Amino acid sequence: MLNLLKPLYPAFFASLKANPELAHKQSLNLLQQLTFQRDNIIGKWTIQEIEKSFCYTHPSLSQSLWNLNFSHPLGLAPGFDKNAQAPGIWSSFGFSFAELGAVTLYPQEGNPSPRMFRLPADKAILNRMGANNDGANTIALRLKQAWEKHPRSIPIGINLCKSKVTNLEQATEDYVGSFKLLRPYADYFVVNVSSPNTPGLRSLQGGEQLELILEGLQAQNNGEKPIFVKIAPDLAWDDIRSILKVSMQYNLSGIVATNTTIKRDGLKTQILPATGKPITEEAGGISGKPLRVRSTEVIRFIYRETGGKLPIIGVGGICDTESAWEKITAGASLLQFYSGWIYEGPWVVKEILEGLTHKLAENGLSHLSQAVGMDEKTTSS
User: Fold this and answer.
1) Distance CA 52, CA 75 (A)
2) In the chain, what percentage of residues exceed pLDDT 70?
3) What is the C-alpha separation between 175 and 163, in angstroms, rounded?
4) Which pLDDT belongs to residue 204?
5) Phi, then psi, of 365 in degrees rounded to 5
6) pLDDT in tens, 149-200
7) DSSP 8-state class, residue 136
């Protein structure tokens, strides 16, 4: 039934452009209500209809990584469900995993509004949210209650960010504090040191401070949970090499590439309509289609530098089968998206997955794992 609404989605999406953050909140509130009502007749029927419209599986797309099972490579990126309001609903929308957050140790309101803007000409989102969230303790309790009622059916990750009130020198204690509270309620964790919206955070990507954070987390972890680091797309190649060296030194499970970009090159949007200011003067990170090429370049670089030994979760500019396929063949084992899901509508998950099965067949491949890094392997041979 929901497939009948697909032609109406562009008009519906356009109607929400005046206040994208409010539209986001309202959508999450509806999904939260649906999770509360999933056991009654209407709730069950609604979820069944959602799953019929948006879910797709195929044996060639399934993978087992880090002792976690992924029915296919496509997951929900962090930023959408910051506060774990609807953590159990994402599998019904066809995602094989979902990453919540970013979560900070202390609750924080984030930056002043307006702080989320759509750039439809670029199929992009500009955000300077500032990691607004309810804090690790509240989110841990929320997840505990959610999993007690309905155990999670897909891997759930949590994106950890430093609290704004915490000095950079105390960053390790901040990340470790969040990890200790949330560890029982998630399957993997991502160390976010690359958001452009927390002052000074990107400085943690290099050198001794990143080592201290990873050392502190692994000391608490004891190898129990997969831990990743998420990097910025704006780093120089030597800086990425340094992060890879540290990541392997501290036995990280992989790299998430990449976060949002602070660059404004090549944007069609020159003036932000909501403020009337040039886009070059607006703070925040850009996600979506403008990030597609650079994030793929970073994925390819990481795969080449590590010989494919450090798994990559690719994110940035995924909106269709082609953009997903290029990241996989560049070296990504899993994918995440958020902006593309918003712009293309929830039907795009199924469309991408069906497209990937066709891509495998066209290339004479029987399984997705054979496609990971295929471009680099072909070049090397």
Assistant:
1) 18
2) 95
3) 9
4) 84
5) -105, 145
6) 999 999 999 999 999 999 999 999 999 999 999 999 999 999 998 898 888 8
7) H
Angle among Cα 361, 364, 366 to the nearest 5 degrees reads 70
Secondary structure (DSSP) of 213-275: HHHHHHHHHTT-S-EEEEE-TT--HHHHHHHHHHHHHTT--EEEE---B---TT-S--EETTT
Regarding pTM above 0.90, the answer is yes
Beta strand ranges found along the chain (DSSP E): 63-65, 68-70, 74-76, 97-103, 116-119, 124-127, 156-160, 188-192, 227-231, 254-257, 271-272, 277-278, 285-288, 312-315, 334-337
Of residues 380 and 34, more confidence is placed in: 34
pLDDT of residue 29: 95
Domains (range + CATH), the chain = 2-260+270-380 (3.20.20.70)
pLDDT at 194: 86
Asked about 60 being catalytic, the answer comes back as no
End-to-end CA distance of the chain: 49
Say which of 53, 92, 195, 287 is annotated catalytic: 195
* Mean pLDDT over the full length of the chain: 94
Task: Please name the amino acid found at residue 361.
Answer: A
Q: Quick check: 286 and 232 in contact, CB under 8 A?
A: no
